[in-house]
Every structure is written in structure tokens, then in C-alpha cells.
Amino acid sequence: MKKKIISFFLCFLLIFSFPLYSYASDYELSPSYTGTDVFGNGYQTACDSSTCKYDGSSITWSDSAHLVQTADIYACQFDFSIIGSFSSDDVITINYSNTLGGFKFNTATCSFYENGDKTSSLSLTSSSGSFSYTVLNNVDDVRLIIYSEDLTKSPTSTTPSTRFNVTFSVEAAETGLLKTIIEYIKGIFSDIQDLPNKISDFFADLKNNLSSLFADVGEWFSQLGDNLKQWFESVGEWFSQLGDNLKQWFEDVGNWFSELFSNISAFFTGLWDDFTEWFKSLFIPRDGYFSEMFNLFGQWLSDHLGFLAQSADVITSLINTISNLNGSSSGVIVFPEIRLPFLDNPLIMERQEFDLLSYINSISVLKQIYQIYQLIVTALFTFLFVKYAYRKFEEILKGREVTD
Fold it and tell me: What is the reported pTM?
């Protein structure tokens, strides 16, 4: 029983493993022709009339009614519909030849349609030749349209005519289980035969990849060493610059404090000097005061004493000596500016001047007190001067020194 089953399976396998072939007689070719003249008129004719005939291998078209002249033919088109059962991967081979009657095409474009849908196109560079088309889908109608505007026309022809010879064959795609198994086994043996080459290529690629890998690793470690060296150098340089910057900063801070104490010392020194000058200005009259008083007194002596006033030269030296005691200070106290020694030396306090006399004159009470003080000082100096002049006068008149 088992032998019968195995025999049946082998027979089934052999029967359905052989390829299936198709022949042209299994298909029907339905051609037609369309012509176009220079006036834009089209002439479409199925090949079942007196003007267009098809004998199974040749299309003959002739305008026996002389509807258009040969010279007026502008374009021609041959249309073929091959009716039959097609499967994907079926191959249609077309042999064609367009011979000169009144005209023929030189080059043309062939477009393919499957059940009315355009699938592809190709260029025909000659009026005769062959081409193939591989069916894409399972269809029952494959259409070919050959169109050309590149025509050769016979100058002596008055009746437009052309002949197009066409034959075709269809080669169905091979099928069968045995073929599939054989192709699979052939593929296995092909792979086994190519295995040494693949192994050799594998090891060659592995060697190249390992060489490249080790080269990259070596280059990486080399770059790592360079980068680490550069990094340590940068760190060392950074610390060196940090030390220099800190040293400069401390020097700047030291200079700042030094300048600060110098400014403070100069400030108090100047403050004391300004205060001394101001204090002197409180007791010393204004410039020219004694000179003016001396001139007035001299004029008075000249008016009242006559020749005795000549002896006033003795007194003049004394008055000039006293008059030179006038103060020159205005009583202004100067505060110097103070800056920080870092951060672009920002200004903490600007230089300022304080005019004490102007301040006293700006306050009415202090001004009145100061004027009273000046009046008292003036009266005191006047009294002392008059007394001194009187004593000198007695010395001149009596010829003796007055002691009381």
C-alpha cells in the first residue's frame, strides 16, 4: 500500500512539474489603422473593410477613394489587441515590418495596455525589427499602439497606402513543482560551490575589519595621550596664570591700602593746614587794610602837623611790617578722592572742597557774629596803633623815650 501511494505521488509530481507552453494559435489578433492628415482630419479604419485588410500576418491599408493625398499624410497609427488568457510573466514577442507603399514610418512609439490600463512604452528606432513585452498581471487583453509622425513618403504616390507585417508569439511562464524543487536544489549546490569563496571573503573582510579596528584603537589611544598631555599642560598653565593673577591681585590690594593710608594722611595734613590758614584769616585783616589805614593816618598827620609829619617815615616801616601780616587763605578744606585697587578702580568718594568762610557767610547769624568779630579786631588794632603813634609822637616832640 505504501509503495502505491509513493508511486502515485511521484507520477503526480512528474506530470505537474513540466513547464506549460502557449502558442500563437491560442490567441486572436484584432488590428486597426488610424491615419491623420495635415488638416487635422483622422481616418480610423478597422481591418475588416475594403480599405484595411488583415490576412493573419499583414495589414494592408489603401485609400482607394482618394480622400487624402499621400503628401498630406501627417501621422499614422497601428492598433493591435491580442485577445487570450495571459498570466503574469508571460512574454509576448512581436516581429514587425512597415514597408513603403505610399508612405511608411521611420521611428515610432509603442505603448502597452493591459485590460485598458497603460503599463509601459518603448521607442522603435526602425521601420522593421522585433521587441518583447512581459505581461504584468493576469489579463485577457493586451493592446499595442504604434504611433509615428516620422514618415517617409513616396513622391510619385497619389494613392496613400502602407503595409505593416506583424507576427507574434507568446511564451507562457514556466510552472511546476518539480521545477521549483530543482531550482531550489540548484540554488543550494550553487551556494555550496560558492561557499569557499564566501568563507575566504569573510576572513578577508574580518582581517581588514580587525586591522582597521586595531588601527582605530591605536589612533584613539594616541589621541587620548595627546589630549591628556594637552589637558595637563592647560591645567598647569591655568594654575600658573592663577598664581600670577593672585600675586597681582594682592599687589593691587597692597597698593590700594598704601594709597588709601597716604590719602588719609594727606587729607588730615591738608585739613590741619587749611584749618590753620583759616584760623589765621580770622585774626589777620584783609589785604591792604593796614596800608590803607597808614595812608589815611599819614594824610591826617600832614594836614595837622605840617613839617613834623616828615618824621612819619620812622613809623612807616612799622606799619608796613604790620600790614604784611594779612592772611591769604580762603579757609577751604579739601577732601581727596578714594578708589578701589581692583575691578577697574571704581570710585568710592569724589574729591570735595569745603569753603568754611563761604559757609559762614551763607548763614546770617554766623555772618553777623563774624562781622562783629572783625569790627572788634579792627577797633583793637586801631586803638593799639593810635596808642603806638601817640607814644612815637611824644618821643619826637620831647626827645626822650616814653616808658609808660
Answer: 0.41
